[in-house]
Amino acid sequence: MSASPPSVSLRCLRIFGLVGICTCGMPTWALAHTGQGMGGFAGGLAHPLFGADHVAAMVAVGLWGAFLGPPAIYQLPVVFPLVMAFGGALGILWVPLPHVEIGIAVSAVVLGAMVALAARPHLAVAAALVGAFAIFHGHAHGAELPAGADPVAYSLGFVVATGALHLAGIAFGLLARWPAGRLAVRTAGGAIAVAGLVFLHASMT
Amino acid sequence: MMALRLAILLLTTMVSSALAHAPGFGGRFTGGLVHPVVVPAHLLALIGVGLLVGQQAEGRAAFLTIFGLGVAAGLLAIAWAAGPSSAKLVLTTAALAAGAWTASARPLPPVLGWPLMSVTGAAIGLDSPPETASLREANHMLIGTGLAATAIPTALAAAIAHLNRDWQRLALRIAGSWIAAAAILVLALALAA
């Protein structure tokens, strides 16, 4: 006798639970390493959370992934951290990337608008768009990496925080399964797009 | 599920030991035992290896045996006072490879897996020089390190081998991509230094 497969929402909730446990446990490991301050795991974990433009875009990626449904909802959380880390490596190595701040602000505008408009382009188009923006975000984070940070602990914290924001967006985006939730998610997308316009204005002045 | 509980218990115990890591606590054996847990580069590589091996449907025992032999070889080399090495760089590259392969969710062929396991194990051993002047204490520390370095990926792989549901396999791929992403950043930092 085979049980019916769990719904997408239930599966994702389980993933978030597992990720939550890992996220709570990892700082303990990092803090166990004596001599680690904010340059360690905690510093990496906090870094993506202190930039409103980064937070808005990461959450928007998750929202859009949930809107697009399978297979995007499964592929984006796996591919996004890798592409962003590639961008981060470019930033660390001081490989110039023009208009990074503008690119980050535009990412919030475009991704928020995609959610607000409930846009469903081909997966390749969505992946290319999200991947291009991931490089901008990664580049900015890499270039801002504090000197003296423990590289492994900091990088791990940074990746976990970014992934958690992304997964939080997916969790909220799953509300789109219901009519009222769909409205709430699209409204959130609109709010992110408007915030992106504010970021864009700030980065151009 | 029992293997998963055992793995969590093992990790929790090790972290507790690490948090209580104070001069003189538990002797050098305990110091060696917690060493792979408190060195982030080692932990990253060990988790990467555990995830990758646990994900494989076949050849898990061979991969873990080769990894254990690699650790033993590295520890023997460091016991015979092998000089400074670039083991940390090798470890980070191995973590990148293991994480990326886990994220791809493809079967790991032995022609790639065996060298990866042996090199990762040896690098962990070579990067674990005992911090003591006494030969006896150094040996105790190396034995502790060897036990922990083989136990962590073994326990993790045993636990992961039981994760068969779709969402569990996806969580595993996400964890692999996080390990690989962190390793990419660490390698870039090493190149920039």
Count of strand segments of chain A: 0
What is the helix/strand order of chain B? HHHHHHHH
Low-confidence stretches of chain B: 15-25
Number of helices of chain B: 8
First-residue to last-residue Cα separation of chain A: 64 Å
Question: How many strands appear in the DSSP assignment of chain B?
Answer: 0
Major sheet of chain B, described briefly?
none
Global Rg of chain A: 17 Å
Domain tally of chain B: 1
Which structural category fits the helices and strands of chain B?
mainly alpha
Helix/strand order of chain A: HHHHHHHH
What portion of residues of chain A is helical?
over 70%
3D structure, described in words:
- The complex is a heterodimer of chains A (205) and B (193).
- Chain A has 205 residues and is an all-alpha fold.
- Chain A has one domain (8-204).
- Helix content of chain A is 76%, strand content 0%.
- Chain A is built from eight helices and no strands.
- In chain A, helix 3 (52-68) runs parallel beside helix 5 (100-116).
- Chain A is globular and about 50 Å long.
- The relative contact order of chain A is 0.21.
- The model of chain A is unreliable at 1-6 and 19-37 (pLDDT under 50).
- With 193 residues, chain B is an all-alpha fold.
- Chain B has one domain.
- Helices cover 80% and strands 0% of the residues of chain B.
- Chain B has eight helices and no strands.
- Chain B has helices at residues 2-19, 27-38, 40-55, 60-79, 87-104, 110-126, 135-160, 166-192.
- In chain B, helix 1 crosses helix 2 (27-38), helix 2 (27-38) crosses helix 7 and helix 3 packs antiparallel against helix 8.
- Chain B is globular.
- In chain B, 55% of the residues are buried.
- The chains are: A mainly alpha (205), B mainly alpha (193).
- The interface between A and B is large, with 44 and 40 residues.
